[in-house]
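User: Sequence in, structure out. Go.
Assistant: Echoing your sequence, followed by the structure tokens.
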Amino acid sequence: MQVNLQADNKKVTAQAVAALEGPGNIKGQAKFTEYDVDGWKYVHVSVELSGDPETLTAGKHAVHIHEKASCDCDGFKCAGGHFDPGPNGNTDADANHGYHAGDLPNITIDDAGKGTLQAITTRVTLSDGPVSILGKDSAPEGTSLMIHGNTDPYKPGETGSGISGGPRLACGTIQKAN
């Protein structure tokens, strides 16, 4: 099935936002927009991020949706693992993997500590359902967006700290937009 993402008949079905913050004056905004094109849904994700270049270093950084809507703890560990609901899900953030449902493309940060990301995913929704990132069945308390210190190679293999993103640099809870 081919779907034209630029189709005139696409309609916005839901929106969400996350205000990202982290040490080193890291600040950012993420916007999630769910579209429906003839019954086929996808989510467009837009992230803008900036921070002290000594903390938010130049290069690629992993971007993941995490399983809990909590960023108010040391190192953002209270956000849990990567969002990956279902009987075969694996939320272990230290296990390398092909992908989790909440994995997004890496964001590229420039030498000034700034970066943007535009991505489309069909692995999550903003609508009610088994892969919704806004609560109910898959994430009863909601989810968060995490920016990591390392890149995510998106491949299975070894396990250990830092393998699929490394330290957590910035976090924001994902909230439904009005």
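User: And one key feature?
Assistant: The first strand starts at residue 11 and ends at 22.
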